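lol ok so funny story. i was supposed to be doing the assay writeup but got distracted and ended up predicting the structure for this chain instead. priorities right. anyway since i did it might as well share w the group, maybe its usefull for someone
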Amino acid sequence: MTKILYVVLAILLFSCKSNSVAQEKGIKDTISKVEKPKFGDTQSIAVDPNTVHLVAVVQELKKDGMLCDKKFKATTSVRIKRIINSGAGIVNMISAGQEIVFGFVNSPANDFKNLTQDISKDKEVFFKVRENLCSDMSNTMYEVVRYN
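and the output, tada:
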C-alpha cells in the first residue's frame, strides 16, 4: 500500500513540475521580444547637467544687457512655450507660460546684426540654456548655449 502511495505522489509531483517548465518557456519567449534601447536612442535623451532644452516665443532682444551683475553683449526676453527636456541639478526650474530673460554667451552675441535676423519678435525659437547661480547665490540666471 505504501508503494502505491509513493508512486501516486511521484506522478503528482512530476506532473506539477512539467507544467511549470512549460510556463517558464512561455515567459522566456515573451521576455525575449522586449526591445532594448539602441545606442543612438539614449544619446537623444541625455541632457547635460544644469541645462534645459525648451521652445520659447521671443518678446524682445536687447544689446548690452545685465543679468545678476554679469554683463552680456545681448539679452532676450522670452515667454516659455514648452519644456522639452532638462538635465540634473536645476535649482529653479522654468515652467511653461513663464516670462524670463536669457543672456547670450560667446559667438551669437558678438554679431548682434545676425542675431537680430535669426531671432525676431514673436518668433518661436528652440533654446538650449544653462542655469547659473548669481553671485549672491539667491537668484539664478540662464545663459543661451545654443538656439535654432
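Residues 47 and 124 are 21 Å apart (CA to CA). The longest strand covers residues 51-67.
back to the writeup now i swear
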